[in-house]
Amino acid sequence: MSENKIPDIVIGRLPLYLRSLQRMQQENRIITSSQELGERLGISAAQIRKDLSLFGEFGKQGTGYNIPYLIEKIQQILHVDRVWDVVVVGAGDIGSGLARYQGFSNRGFRVAMIFDRDPLKIGAKIGNFIIQDSHNLSETIRKAGIKIAMIAVPSSEAQTVANQLIKGGVRAILNYAPISISVPPHIQIQYIDPSIHLQRMTYYLE
Amino acid sequence: MSENKIPDIVIGRLPLYLRSLQRMQQENRIITSSQELGERLGISAAQIRKDLSLFGEFGKQGTGYNIPYLIEKIQQILHVDRVWDVVVVGAGDIGSGLARYQGFSNRGFRVAMIFDRDPLKIGAKIGNFIIQDSHNLSETIRKAGIKIAMIAVPSSEAQTVANQLIKGGVRAILNYAPISISVPPHIQIQYIDPSIHLQRMTYYLE
DNA sequence: TAGATTGTTAATCGATTAACAATC
DNA sequence: TAGATTGTTAATCGATTAACAATC
């Protein structure tokens, strides 16, 4: 029943399913199975079926899953059956990389604007964007109705920027600064810190 | 007892503990508690004590944990009480960003070389690095004894590059290409894909 | 000593897997 | 029909939490 609370760990796997399915679609595949999907992702077939069954019956016994249909359904579940405008704060290497990144198309996102507080950067262009003054961050994103942000400023600025974003109506933050940020419970936050991933692997190296 | 198998989910939290502890150290703090650390990270104090107790007794009853001492111990556990050379493959926006990234120092890593297959890029400089021809990838990293790699090439090239890296002796891969890669069981792999993180959050937005 | 916090146990909670009836 | 794969249940497995004795 989709009325029950869905575990967050299940939500965390759906984007992986979606990415693999979209890859299969690019390979002109029409049908897949929980087994094939599981092999590609290193996840058990039973778990994939269980996860999907929390949201509905998307497959056919004896046949498997129709790839375009399952893509559509997962996109609806994750609310990426639309394009979300995203703001980037910080126009250094990471921020400019994100502003130019081609990988958001077909994933449900589009960078809409980029901010920095450095007077030397404000007004300059990155791709098609003009770097805006982060002094006006809250007001500008509120007017634009932006709900999603990526933080790419130095760690010392990250909490302040997060506060401004939340003040401006942002509901979800992807933080590239290598520091924990406090946000109210209704705000979503995720982190990207390559050192964290690397340290998780070195444990297994001699 | 440290002879028992440690759950991978615990290993995944240790880098977060380490990052927060290093932040506290920068704030000139000497002592912390499982409660304070938990509040900073949004993790229960009991879980932090349980995790650490899998590796030894690092605290003092009634007092808490000595920050420099606990940092040292976690660094030893994660094998980041040294500096690992890392290779970057792909000299596009992401790869060059990684080559210039200042955030690896004090975290146990140092970018040692960067490769690309584009003749227009080979020989050019990024920061202090000269972009090398990825035709020689396996041999060069084997000679240099490099065990860790970051992949920042297009998705269509990622599996091939991973195979070359493994052939060259790499044991841990951080993959920025938005695609699942197959590796043998003794190879560590981690993924960074901002769209995956964003999609995980949009589920909770209307 | 009194107060505080660890380390650890046992209980609870939640996630994963195995298995199979249903059914395409 | 025979073969295949889903959806779902129940069992297993593993992770988290609560609680408190130990002890600084």
Describe this entry's structure for a reader.
Two copies of one chain form a homodimer. Chain A is built from eight helices and eleven strands. With 206 residues, chain A is of the alpha/beta class. Chain A folds into two domains: 8-78, Winged helix-like DNA-binding domain superfamily/Winged helix DNA-binding domain (Arc Repressor Mutant, subunit A), CATH 1.10.10; 84-196, 3-Layer(aba) Sandwich (Rossmann fold), CATH 3.40.50. In chain A, the strands form three sheets. A six-stranded parallel β-sheet of chain A has the order 8-5-4-9-10-11, sandwiched between helices. In chain A, strand 9, helix 7 and strand 10 form a beta-alpha-beta unit. In chain A, helix 1 packs antiparallel against helix 4, helix 2 (34-41) packs across helix 3 and helix 6 (137-144) crosses helix 7 (155-167). The longest helix of chain A has 19 residues, at 8-26. The radius of gyration of chain A is 20 Å and the shape is elongated. The model of chain A has no long low-confidence stretch (mean pLDDT 97). Chain A binds a DNA duplex (24 and 24 nucleotides) through helix 3 and strand 2.
